[in-house]
Amino acid sequence: MLCEKCKKNNASFFFEENINGKKRSLALCSECAEEMKKNGELNVGTSFFDSAFIPSSFHNDIFGGLFSDTNMLPKSSGQKSCPVCGYTFAEFRRVGKAGCSECYKTFAEELAQSIRSIHGNAKHIGRAPAKAKAKNKKENELKALRKELKAAISDENFEQAAILRDRIKEIEGNM
Amino acid sequence: MAWYNEIGNEFDTVLSSRIRFARNLRAYPFEGKLTPDGAKEIIEKVDSAFKGQGFKRHDFSGGFTTDAASLVEKHYISREFAAKKSPHSLLINESTSASVMICEEDHIRLQTILPGLALNEAYDIATKYDDIIDSSLDIAYDEELGYLTHCPTNLGTGMRASVMMFLPALTMSGRISSIASQLSKIGLTMRGMYGEGSEGKGGIYQISNQITLGITEEDTIKKLYDIIGQINEQERKLRSSIKGENLERLRDTVLRSEGILKYAHMLSSGEFIEHFSNIRLGIALGIITDISYVTLGKLFIETMPATLTLSEKNAPGTDSERDRARAALCHSTLGK
After folding, report:
1. ∠ at Cα B298 (B294, B304), nearest 5°?
2. Is B234 part of a structural domain of the chain?
3. Domain map of chain A by residue range?
4. Of B26, B135, B152, the CB nearest to A115
5. Nearest CA-CA distance, residue A115 and chain B, Å
6. Domain boundary residue among B184, B214, B238?
7. B121 and B48, same structural domain?
8. Residues 26-45 of B with CB under 8 A from A
9. Domain end: B219, B238, B257, which one?
10. Same domain, B91 and B45
11. What confidence tens digit (pLDDT) does each residue in A107-145 have?
12. Which of A124, A131, A140, A175 to mutate: most B Cβ within 10 Å?
């Protein structure tokens, strides 16, 4: 279906409003929808991307219920693409696989639920690269030192606190 | 020596054990976004990481070949890897216990395979080579999600531990399907011989872990050992419950299968697997004493279509020629 405004692009937004029984429906491409919103021609205010707009792809997407559609999300998130490989979340969802390792960071929010539905628990335990292991060890050490520091201060053992503070600084400097 | 040329633990019910690690280089996109030049760079990097470890390299591109199909039959590479058109390479050690698929679905798929029930041993070899990968390559990893993989189903440990089991009695009794559904409830899965989509021909099944996130490698393997122990017990109990008239009938079936493999003039691969399965059960029950597990297991791989084609001087071109070559190999191996 073509956009009813420019009659060039495919319509991806289907807008319906019902004001005092007066119905209006419009099929628009994303550009025209954006432009009309900017010009105040669509009286939708902040709810522009809410459920009044149902992307056409939504209806024939079997994963529609599992993943939230990028077009339904706020604009900043909807237009989000992976800075490394250029994948959009829609592409990720279509293929069911990531474009690059950075995708997992880019789409962390969108993926959290589906990862839980595959694996249940969503936190890794097990083997790790040596670099990550070393970082983890340092972080644990810092945690313990900070706890000791707190205790030293509350005991007014300032000499010990100074030693601990220097040690913390030294580890932080190495990270 | 190849896994199919050796005897292993629990060999009456377990054919082989495999561990696979999925790893990816942080600096490169995954398959689909990866250019052929990128793939070639990855191949060189992984190859140089394994320098001096006694691995031999095979380069592939341009789709399925008989060589690749034979490697699939021997479980050294996946069907998907064999069919790939973009550059991809295999590194395999001399004993063939360890292999590395480079640029499969993930950049690195490290695999170890051993005969019988030997997940712990296969895991020890795999971690040794994984340490080499870790020390020389920057691997994509996240504190929360673990090893980052192309498919979210492998996130976490990126490990698939699988055991190929021989369960003819459970198959015949029809109990196998209830086992399969029980396994899926505890994060394990049961498939046919060649993974996803392949049937459990000849009572042969692969049991592997499904979950990779939030469970350690050791716990995954322990869970598999526990379950396999229980399945083994059920299979053996059923086997030993075959008595009286039923045992006489089974003896007849087994010996007829032996006769066919020894003296048939033509054998299709489907027919071979059926008789293979009967004879293997016959060995387990002491009905057959002049054929060993290893002789039969070797034949199992050597009679597979691509491996058979490669071994013949005049490569059989038609199905009929191949069926004759298969029967001839069975006769010369068993019929003396």
Report:
1. 150
2. yes
3. 13-119, 130-174
4. B152
5. 7
6. B238
7. yes
8. 26, 28-30, 32-33
9. B238
10. yes
11. 998 888 888 888 887 799 999 998 887 887 888 888 889
12. A124
Q: Is residue B252, in this structure, part of any structural domain at all?
A: yes
Same domain, B184 and B50: yes
Residue B56 falls within a domain, yes or no? yes
**B127 close to A (CB below 8 A):** yes
B94 with B122, same domain: the answer is yes
In this structure, what are the phi and psi dihedrals at residue B8, rounded to the nearest 5 degrees? Answer: -135, 180
Predicted ipTM of the assembly: 0.85
Question: CA–CA separation, B46 vs B92, rounded Å?
Answer: 12
Cβ-Cβ contacts under 8 Å for B287 (sequence gap 6 or more): B250, B251, B254, B255
Do B212 and B263 lie in one domain? The reply is no
Domain total in chain B: 2
Q: Is residue B156 located within the same domain as residue B256?
A: no
Of A108, A101, A81, A83, the residue nearest B28 (C-alpha): A101
Q: Cβ–Cβ of A127/B127 closer than 8 Å?
A: yes
Q: How do the pLDDT tens digits run along chain B, 336 residues long?
A: 789 989 999 999 999 999 999 999 999 999 989 999 999 999 999 999 999 999 999 998 877 888 999 999 999 999 889 989 899 999 999 999 999 999 999 999 999 999 999 999 999 999 999 999 999 999 999 999 999 999 999 999 999 999 999 999 998 888 888 898 899 889 899 987 765 555 567 899 999 999 999 999 999 999 999 999 999 999 999 999 999 999 999 999 999 999 999 999 999 989 999 999 999 999 999 999 999 999 999 999 999 999 999 988 777 778 899 999 999 999 999 986
Tokens of A141: 């050490």
Task: Determine if the pTM surpasses 0.80.
Answer: no
Note whether A121 contacts B139, CB cutoff 8 Å: no
Q: Cβ contact (<8 Å) for A98 and B157?
A: no
CB distance B60 to B90 below 8 Å: yes
Query: From the list B30, B141, B156, which residue is nearest A119 (CB)?
Result: B156
Distance CA B101, CA B82 (A): 10
Q: Is residue B9 part of a domain?
A: no
Parent domain of B249: 244-334
Give me the DSSP letters along A1-44. -B-TTTSSSBP-EEEEEEETTEEEEEEE-HHHHHHHHHTT-STT
Q: Which residues of B touch A127 (CB under 8 A)?
A: 127, 130, 147, 157, 216-217
Q: Are residues B76 and B208 in the same domain?
A: yes
Q: Are residues B225 and B306 in the same domain?
A: no
Two tokens, residue A161? 């606190």
